[in-house]
Amino acid sequence: MYCSSCGVAVTPGLSYCNYCGERLSGAKSDSIIRSPEVKPETLVGAMVFTFVFGLGAITALMGVMKVILHLEGGQILGIALLNFLIMLSLEAVFIRLLLRRKRGAEEGGDMLKGQGTRELDAAQARVLPEPMSSVTEHTTRAFDPVYRERSSK
After folding, report:
1. pTM for this predicted structure
2. Number of neighbouring beta carbons within 10 Å of residue 94
3. From residue 50, how far is each of 44, 45, 82 by CA, in Å?
4. Which end of the chain is more exposed for a tag (fewer CB within 10 A), N or C?
5. Which DSSP symbol is given to 15?
6. What is the mean pLDDT of residues 41-70?
């Protein structure tokens, strides 16, 4: 069997090519649907931006309600609290996505280790029973100095 992407001969029964990593066409397809990957740096950046922008917007909104709309303190405080709760709920969503990604990476790594182990166990059944000596070992021994006794005449 040969890889359709790089042309290297592969062992039958493998899901991916050992050389280029391409999915082999003869392998069974997994029905795992993964959500799009979001980098942790992006989530943390979104959290910081939401918090800073949210606090600035709430402060500006409170000033506009007091100066322009001439609302009372209780009304301003109620609207500001509502906006603050919306901002906190957005932060909670970002934290949940961040923790889910971390947990998914830990579980996904274990799942991949298990799949690779099964494939490797099948391949190790064909290993030679005894290890053969290496060429390097033989060459090194061949160049060991030979000591001979000198005869005195």
Report:
1. 0.45
2. 20
3. 10, 8, 15
4. C
5. S
6. 91
Residue-wise pLDDT tens digits, 13-47: 788 888 788 888 764 444 455 556 677 888 888 89
Classify the C-alpha dihedral 9-12-14-15 as positive or negative. positive
DSSP 16-40: B-TTT-PBPTTSPPP----PPP--H
Residue 33 vs residue 147, higher pLDDT:
147
Scored b (16 or more CB within 10 A) or e, 10-38 reads beeebebbeeeeeebeeeeeeeeeeeeee
pLDDT beyond 60 at 88: yes
Kindly write down the DSSP assignment for every residue of 63-118, as one continuous string.
HHHHHTS---HHHHHHHHHHHHHHHHHHHHHHHHHHHHHHHHHHHHHHHHHHHHHH
Q: Could you give the CA distance from residue 142 to residue 134 in angstroms, rounded to a whole number?
A: 13
CA–CA separation, 48 and 40 (whole Å): 12
Q: pLDDT tens, 96-121? A: 988 887 776 666 554 444 455 555 55
Q: How far is it, in rounded angstroms, from Cα 53 to Cα 63? A: 15
